[in-house]
Specification:
Elements lengths: L1 H25 L4 H8 L3 H15 L2 H14 L4 H14 L1 H8 L6 H13 L4 H27 L6 H12 L1 H15 L2 H13 L5 H14 L2 H7 L4 H23 L1 H15 L3 H20 L3 H11 L18 H4 L1 H32 L2 H28 L6 H36 L6 H27 L2 H30 L5 H30 L1
Helix pairs in contact: 1-8, 2-3, 3-5, 4-5, 4-13, 4-14, 5-14, 5-16, 5-17, 6-11, 6-16, 7-8, 8-11, 9-10, 9-12, 10-12, 11-12, 11-16, 12-14, 12-16, 13-14, 14-16, 14-17, 15-16, 19-20, 19-21, 19-22, 20-21, 21-24, 22-23, 22-24, 23-24
């Protein structure tokens, strides 16, 4: 019984995961873009959460993705709350799929999926095969779990446990929560609940509290994903917990009328037992969203009070790029693009500061922060470049055309500074992973070059912002110093290695960091030269 149940559970979980992967791949893996674009307000956030959860067949997956986007700065807390609410509705689709009893056809469905995966060369048909194979596996897993649970009907201890849960609904909530905490899939625990109810192994008054507990248990994935993240991401995860706990409290108070409602639906619509649980699950989540949607602001305020700390939100989206002025005022559009480029450049400066702190302190928080800045730089690079390309389609004066070209080049240089900053972070990661230590002298040398490079970048950005020729010329002089320092530090480090003062791995990392700093200096010079040319 145990082997068949565990094996069935494994096949069921694999089926959901494989089907979700196929759906996700066939959609082009643009989930981040979908969430980013559709969350213009909380209502759109709910719709985005439903859509993505149906797409990947996992509310936990959507919630973890949302926590990650909040952590990266793509989403605000209020946007995230809407998506989390939508994810709770989207996950009910799985229980409705399970409610359709097609377990007898699981094997031919799996066979069709296998043919599409192994005998068709087209990747799109392979993804369709994944979806079909996962769909069949899901029902095969359910069937095996059902067969494994059949002997429980003769177990007096199990019967007594179900009766106890029927008499004590809170015990049912605790049972459902703990079971989902262990399996980490509410879809799986609800599928098991549907099988138990279908075989008359559990009564409806005992099954409903377990169903509510399943929804609380599914929040553990988001909590685990939020460990070590930003304050905003931790708040988003806590919102998920509060949302499901409040929903459970409301429905536990209304348990008797809710049970009567499900029994009424079952009689009117002639619902099979598994479909009754699916309707209960759907009603619970949709009603919960409808009740709490109007209090998103209050939820955001509550979690802000509970989790103290500064948000340190990095604005990933462009703030100054107005599409309306592209055709009406190219001069104003160029000024807006320049403002956005200056903001992008400030992110590169902040990222470099975090990189040098990471080298000295080796604190993972500074590393994560630096990589956030790098991601923000990449995002702004795409938006600014797209804006400038659209601008080039409109008539420009020779002066505007020159400045337009200069801004495109400058955007590329700042993006490259971000890339080199990311390289430095990865090099420090290598030191930590492999327990490699730089000597104190090597660290002092790197700090000196960091200081010179940061000064060069700061002056080049300032020269661009205020169009100061003297500052731009100063940058050219500083770049010469960076080049000389790079050559000197390389020679000194080779001497240290020859004298056995540092190990080979440390030497490679040292030289690579120096090389990246020198390249950052080159890009700072490119920005200064663009100012001089203008």
């Amino acid at each position: 019984m145990l082997f068949k149940f565990i094996g069935g559970l494994g096949i069921f979980l694999f089926g959901i995961k494989y089907m979700g992967d196929g759906l996700q791949n066939s959609a082009g893996d643009r989930l981040r873009e979908i969430l980013d674009r559709l969350t213009t307000n909380p209502f759109m956030g709910v719709l985005a959460g439903i859509f993505v959860t149906v797409l990947i067949q996992s509310s936990s997956g959507t919630t973890v993705l949302t926590v990650g986007l909040v952590n990266a700065g793509f989403l605000t807390l209020r946007q995230a709350i809407g998506i989390i609410m939508g994810a709770n509705i989207g996950t009910t689709v799985t229980s409705f799929i399970i409610g359709i009893d097609i377990g007898e056809y699981a094997f031919p469905i799996i066979a069709v999926g296998s043919v599409l995966i192994f005998f068709i060369k087209n990747p799109k048909w392979n993804y369709v095969g994944q979806i079909i194979f996962g769909f069949g596996s899901l029902f095969l897993g359910l069937r095996l779990m059902g067969e494994g649970m059949q002997p429980l009907s003769n177990s007096g201890a199990f019967e007594e446990l179900m009766l106890t849960m029927g008499d004590n609904p809170i015990l049912g909530v605790v049972f459902g929560t703990l079971f989902t905490l262990i399996i980490q899939s509410s879809s799986a625990t609800i599928g098991i609940l549907q099988e138990l109810y279908s075989q008359n192994l559990i009564s409806l008054n005992a099954a409903l509290p377990v169903l509510f507990g399943d929804n609380i248990g599914t929040t553990i994935t988001a909590i685990l994903a939020a460990i070590g993240t930003t304050v905003a991401a931790r708040r988003a995860a806590l919102t998920h917990v509060i949302f499901n706990v409040l929903g459970t409290i409301i429905f536990m108070i209304l348990l008797v009328p809710f049970q009567t409602y499900i029994e009424f639906l079952a009689g009117k619509l002639k619902l099979e037992p598994a479909m009754q649980i699916a309707f209960a699950h759907g009603t619970f989540n949709i009603t919960n969203v409808f009740i709490q949607f109007w209090f998103i602001g209050a939820l955001a305020l509550l979690v802000t009070k509970l989790i103290k700390g500064e948000d340190n939100f990095i604005e990933f989206k462009a703030k100054h790029l107005d599409e309306i002025v592209l055709a009406t005022s190219p001069t104003l559009a160029i000024q807006q693009a320049k403002k956005e480029i200056i903001r992008m450049a400030s992110y590169s400066q902040e990222g470099l500061n975090q990189a040098v702190h990471y080298l000295n302190q080796m604190d993972k928080k500074t590393s994560a922060r630096a990589l956030q800045y790098e991601e923000a730089i990449n995002n702004l690079d795409r938006q600014i470049t797209s804006y400038l390309v659209k601008l080039s389609a409109h008539p420009l004066t020779p002066q505007e055309s020159n400045e337009h070209s200069m801004l495109l080049d400058t955007t590329r240089d700042i993006e490259r500074i971000g890339d080199h900053m990311e390289n430095i972070i990865e090099l420090v990661d290598y030191l930590i992973r492999n327990n490699v230590r730089l000597t104190d002298t090597a660290k002092q040398d790197l700090n000196a070059m960091f200081e010179l490079t940061l000064s060069t970048v700061d002056k080049s950005v300032k020269a661009l912002e205020v169009e100061n020729i003297e500052l731009a010329k100063e940058v050219l002089g500083l770049e010469d110093k960076i080049d000389k320092m790079e050559r000197t530090l390389r020679k000194q480090h080779i001497m240290r290695m020859n004298e056995g003062q540092c190990e080979g791995n440390a030497g490679i990392v040292f030289v690579d960091i120096v090389s990246n700093l020198e390249r950052i200096g080159d890009h700072a010079v490119n920005i200064a030269e663009a100012v001089l040319e203008k």
